[in-house]
Amino acid sequence: MKAFLSVLIVAGGTLAHGVPPETKSEPVTETIHGETVVDPYRWLEGDNSNPENMGIVNDEVASWTDSQNGYTRSVLDNLPGRAALESRLRELMEVPSIGSPSAYGNRYFYSRREGSQPQAVRYVSDGLNGDERVLLDPQEIDPSGLTTVSWTAPNHDGSLMAFGMYTAGDENSTLYVMDVESGEWFADEIPGKVNFSGWLPDSSGFFYSRLEDLDDAYSSVMKLHKLGTHHRQDQELFRQKDIEFFYGNLNKSEAELTALKTTWGPFGMPSEDGRWMTVGYWTGTAGVDLWIADLSEWFRTGELNLVPMAIGKMGRIGGAHFDGDRMFIQHSFDAPNGTVSVVDLSNPAFENWQAVVPHDEDLVIEGVNFARGILAVDYLESAKTRIALFDYNGNSKGDLELPGIGSGGLVTSDDRTEAFLSFSSYNMPRSIYRVDLASGDSELWARPDVPVDPSKIEVKQVWYDSKDGTPVSMFIVHKKGIELDGNNPTILYGYGGFDISMTPYFSSTMFPWYEKGGVYAVANLRGGGEYGNAWHEAGMLDQKQNVFDDFIAAGEWLVENGYTNPNQLGIAGGSNGGLLTGATVVQRPDLFSAAISAVPLLDMVRYQNFLMARYWVPEYGTAEDPEQYKFIKAYSPYHNVKPGTKYPAVLFTAGENDTRVHPLHARKMAAMMQNATGSDPEAEPILLWVDREAGHGGGKPLHLRIRDVADQRIFMMWQLGMLED
């Protein structure tokens, strides 16, 4: 391999660095639907000699990754101002943080992280203002700081708590149970990426789902566990592989049944009284089928009889609540912006559902929470939160007063009107309020003391036209009083997929950027959920190019309106947003000077072959289909890199333990672009950082999160002209 420099070079007043390690090319040629496709870096996927090992890192790939990581560290760690920036970020990120409490009986459960603690600690208090006790301190369990508590599930009276933990970002949660009063852990332990579903009424056990095989993302099984028994004895309700159980009498073709086996698959929501279970099966990212099952019959006979509720409907579901023999459910079936219906479980067919909260053409239902006699509906109004209250008959009880314009969410309990509102905006730290949904009374319960001045920050929402004339909204954040002279370093962020909404949020780590005159913009791209089902569907499948067009148009608008220029405009995104930035860089390299593509999908011709990626075929399509191959190949970033093109600097990041998006995408794309770019690799490098102690991003300890933010900020500051030589 070509040696690379590990020291900073200052040449002619311009920061420069050594060139990246060389990457060998071993072309693999194949014919896909009559087209010859050459993949020069297939070897970076790992050991493909055995299909069962596809994507496994071998020694050669590991050595190559070490070289790339060493090169990236030599660049990012030696940039001027790195130490000062990291110190400032540490100060901001060590500010204590606290989560919204959840009430069970007289006990309140919440998380808090203090100072330099690597992970949040779980607490309980008897009464809201009672003495708090530590329930789970991940650092005591694992001094390395790499173990995180992924979820908690107290029982109805708060005497017991099930919880999940995973290590090094792999998200493969193992379930444990503890006695809340004593803090003692039970012997019960269930491995396998466990998701909790619900306790039995007498707390003698609980329903849960897990993967039977961690190497098979499509092996979900739903079971009942009785406390004090080994999980191998757990009684099964259904499994993802048994597709005939769900669809055997619905006249599905063999191809349809095969495709259903690799969607997000089945789930179950039991009622607190143990009588009912709503069973769902995700047919895609924009569709789910629903049945109801009488659990009393299952307990008696061992047979789970599924009665159809809503089959073959496009749309998604959200919050649900059982009230005796009826169920309230948030959904978007035949209601593209969402609605809340009540279902008589003795007559559950969709045509009998009754709307309690009607569909609104101008507001999108983002969520619903259930308190005693109150439905709290979380609306999105132009990508900002509005919370409306209704009684169980659908009568309006007015809006919940919010502290401002931003993003809010409630935590409620169905046995009380007390709730906790979490609220933030770009210029408002996340604050938690204790509210009474019946009286409207509100008091501040917790707010971090962040060492920044939010009053100096200006936030606005603008609208711009995309390539096809579609209006798209965008938030813009910056220090008050900046001049629109076209010379402001600007980061444009986006996601645009899976019905996920980009709403205002507070990030203390952006303040060093604002303080230096930087602008931050977030575009509400098609593919997201900000404007309902139609907005999501306009960025799926053969419409995916709309998402990239929306993002490009946002960059053009920022330039045309005097915020910035192509030499000072950078883009950032992660996961599906990493695909977004990868595609945008390839399509419009002239418009941007820097890009961050975090934990990305980039080889869209082969993405479905790895990990859980077939879950996303309904969103993206698959190159295995000849018609879908055409539009996928047209935008797949890896397949559209053109040798000799002057690409902007790019930072690719990945997690070695990622169980969602395989790091092979970042590896292959970095190699491809390093070889192809016509830009000076010393001044505008293509960098790759593969974190050996992380996955898709969740569960990282504080010191790794500080390093990651410092990497991304210093990279943008360097490339957009904010560093002094």
Superfamily at the CATH H level of the domain at 9-91 and 452-719? Alpha/Beta hydrolase fold, catalytic domain
Shape: globular
Helix content: 10-25%
CATH class of the domain at 9-91 and 452-719: Alpha Beta
Structural class: alpha+beta
User: Per CATH, which architecture of the domain at 9-91 and 452-719?
Assistant: 3-Layer(aba) Sandwich
- CATH topology term of the domain at 9-91 and 452-719: Rossmann fold
Give, in spatial order, the strands making up the sheet with the most strands. 34-35-37-36-38-39-40-41
Count of DSSP strands: 41
Oligomeric state of the chains? single chain
Backbone CA Rg: 26 Å
End-to-end Cα distance: 30 Å
What's the number of helices? Answer: 14
Mean pLDDT: 94
Binned strand content = 25-35%
Low-confidence stretches: 1-14, 49-54
Largest sheet: 8 strands, mixed
